[in-house]
Specification:
69 residues, alpha+beta, 12% strand, elongated
Length: 69
């Protein structure tokens, strides 16, 4: 969970993503306030919206299921 990482610094010339080694060419640094305002909170809000829509669709599908006996 990205919210659990507070202050970390790793220096490396390569990293492994999805099982493949990638060369590090740039380093990006963010203040925690900026990261929370423009990344962590918007992602959490989007996740909540998508989960709510998924739940509403599941309820809609359940209520509209036709049972023929």
């Amino acid at each position: 969970d990205i919210g659990n990482v507070r202050r970390s610094l790793v220096v490396a010339d390569s990293i492994v993503l999805a099982g493949r080694t990638r060369q590090v060419t740039k380093v990006m640094v963010y203040r925690p306030e900026w990261l929370n305002k423009f990344y962590t909170r918007p992602i959490a809000q989007l996740t909540a919206i998508l989960n709510r829509e998924r739940q509403q669709q599941a309820i809609h599908n359940l209520l509209n299921t036709c049972n023929i006996s």
